[in-house]
Amino acid sequence: MTPVLIGQIMGVSFASGLNIYATVAALGLLSRMGIIQELPPALHGLQSSIIIGTALVLYMVEAIIDRVHHVDSLWDTVHTFVRPPAAALLAVGMLWAQPLHLQLAAAGMAFLVALAAHGTKAGFRIAVNAASRKRSITPISTGEDLVAVLFVVGAFEYPATALIAGVAALALIGLFGSRLWRAFTLGFRCVTAWIRALFITPGWRDADALPRRLRALLDDPPLGTAPHRTTRAAVNGIPGIGAYRNGWLVVTPDGPAFLCNGLLRARRVDLPDPVEMNIDPGPWVNEIHVRHQDSSFTLYLLQDGPPAELVLAELETVPL
Predict the structure, then answer these.
(1) What does the alpha-carbon distance between residue 88 and residue 308 come to, in Å, rounded to a whole number?
(2) Taken in order 132, 139, 183, 197, is the CA torsion positive or negative?
(3) 3-class secondary structure, 251
(4) What are phi and psi of 155, to 5 degrees?
(5) Could you say which DSSP state residue 320 is in?
(6) Higher per-residue pLDDT: 47 or 295
């Protein structure tokens, strides 16, 4: 694989991770218009009017959905199973005449690049939605579409620039994207919990539902006290725990705690004494905003757990 081919694959894959329908439509249209001169023969089918028309219709659907708070996160969650595989297929098409091992290598690279772009985009959207549900996300969505088209054009007209831009973007994602990837994971957990709640009775779970590493952080409750109760949750705003940290809320006889798996070890954080708490309900996740003496934090409750009002009552009545 030459640097030119790597740059082309990198550009198309990054664009696919942001918006696969805009990428396919741009490849077909720009090739038919002669702006892209070197579209690989195996991808000439993208110039078909049916392919272009279908991609444009789906792009218009996404353009509408992508500008609606929370619905955009559901769309992104579903497209976790669309954008990276589609990028891998495009990469295989770009190397159709090459040996199989090169096609597989290109497909793997394209999948990972698209997944990185997709996960960062989805996490950024969740962070924006969590910060403000009234702020318009149209400029963000438009900017993402524009970046996707620019990567497509750059991939074939300026492959070296596309390669440098792609590597730089991946480096930035690796250095600063952990917050957004945790937000993306939270969004994925929210949607799967919402689906799970359709088949089970939402509510508290006992401590046996916790992963083994996290159960080890809990002492046995004293005789005569209520057993530990837990539910899937995430937190944002607790110093040292990381933004949008995914884990479990546990109500113990001593007070509420948040348990999570870190990179090297499991962690337990006893939640601080609240001064004021309020609920902000949402379609995929319920938020409890907690203000305490020093600052404030947000607790995200998934839909397969107890109602937020019940959790709030527990946090108010459990001795802190």
Answers:
(1) 41
(2) positive
(3) strand
(4) -60, -35
(5) -
(6) 47
pLDDT of residue 241: 84
Residue of 46 and 316 predicted with greater confidence: 46
Which secondary-structure segment (H or E) carries 234?
A: strand 229-236
Cβ-contact 46, 31 below 8 angstroms: yes
Distance, in Å, from the CA atom of 48 to the CA atom of 28, rounded to the nearest integer, reads 7
Residue pair 165/154 in contact (Cβ under 8 Å)? The answer is: yes
End-to-end Cα separation, the chain, in angstroms: 61
**Tens digits of residue pLDDT in 202-238:** 999 999 999 999 999 998 888 878 889 999 999 998 8
Q: Are 173 and 116 within 8 A, CB to CB?
A: yes
* Residue 306: per-residue pLDDT: 93
149 has pLDDT over 80: yes
DSSP for 14-82 reads: HHHHH-HHHHHHHHHHHHHTTSS----GGGGGGGSHHHHHHHHHHHHHHHHHTTSTTHHHHHHHHGGGT
Domains of the chain: 3-176 (no CATH), 200-317 (2.30.29)
Local structure of 212: helix, strand or coil: helix
Inform me whether the pLDDT recorded for 133 exceeds 90: no
Residue predicted with more confidence, 146 or 97: 146
3-state SS assignment for residue 260: strand
* 220 token code pair: 């046995």
